[in-house]
Automatic annotation (TrEMBL):
InterPro entries xref list: aa-tRNA-synth_II/BPL/LPL, Gly-tRNA_synthase/POLG2
Species whose genome carries this gene: Rotaria socialis
Name by which UniProt lists this protein: Uncharacterized protein
GO biological process, one term: mitochondrial glycyl-tRNA aminoacylation
Signal sequence residues: none
Organism phylogeny: Eukaryota, Metazoa, Spiralia, Gnathifera, Rotifera
Single GO MF annotation: glycine-tRNA ligase activity
One GO CC term, this protein: mitochondrion
Length: 106
C-alpha cells in the first residue's frame, strides 16, 4: 500500500477502478460496492464573448458567490429572473504548497 499511495494522484479512471477491484474497496458506511470512477470537472464552464464561441471556466470558489446569493438577486429584482450576475473582487485559495504564506490572492 505504501508503494501505491504516492501514485494514486497520477492514475486515470481505469487504473483507479483496477485498484478498487484488486483491494476489494467498499463504501465505508454501507459496505456497498463502489461504482466505476468517472472524469469530472469542478470548474464551472461558460462561454465568453458576443458570439459565445469561446469556452471559459470559473474556479469553483470564485463562482460560488453568484449561486449562493441568487435568492437575494431574485428578491431584489422583484421575483423576476436577473438579466445577469457578475462577481468582482479577490479570490482566496487554499494552496497545497503556498510559496510565501498560507493563502494566495489572485
Amino acid at each position: 500500500m505504501k508503494r501505491i499511495l504516492p501514485q494514486i494522484g497520477n492514475m486515470n479512471a481505469a487504473g483507479l477502478d483496477q485498484l478498487v477491484k484488486q483491494y476489494h474497496i467498499k463504501a465505508p458506511n454501507t459496505n456497498n460496492d463502489l461504482s466505476e470512477p468517472i472524469a469530472f470537472n469542478l470548474m464551472f464552464s461558460t462561454t465568453i464573448g458576443a458570439t459565445g464561441q469561446v469556452k471559459g471556466y470559473f474556479r469553483p470558489e470564485a463562482a460560488q458567490g453568484m449561486f449562493v446569493n441568487f435568492k437575494r438577486l431574485l428578491e431584489f429584482n422583484q421575483g423576476r429572473l436577473p438579466f445577469a450576475a457578475a462577481q468582482i473582487g479577490n479570490a482566496f485559495r487554499n494552496e497545497i504548497s503556498p510559496r510565501s504564506g498560507l493563502l494566495r490572492v489572485r
